Amino acid sequence: MRPRLRWLYPLLIALVLAAVTFAYAAANTVPPSSAGDGSNAISGYTVSNVHYVLDSTNPAVISAVEFTLSGSNPAQTVKVQLTASGAWYTCTLSGSTYSCNVGGGVSVYDASILRVVAAQ
């Protein structure tokens, strides 16, 4: 009869180890957190009413750019670029018009593009 009970001892040891492991894992606490995954279409903006503000002392220099953006939500971050490899200028919203101060100015001759990047 003893040979038949030989398998009982390893089974009992496995059950005890499983119970201890479960009890240890149940004692762990994890702070609450949030996570998620999703997607949505990017609708984009339409730039219109573009106005280049020329410097008052030197009209050959652009001192600012003003325009409106149409979209479902107002953009929070807007920047413009006036030359292909030039600096990016930050724009601010005043009413419905975005105004971008070009700092020291960009020569009218050198301005080759108006690249607008806008994001919510």
From TrEMBL:
Signal sequence bounds: 1-25
Record keywords: Signal
Protein name: Uncharacterized protein
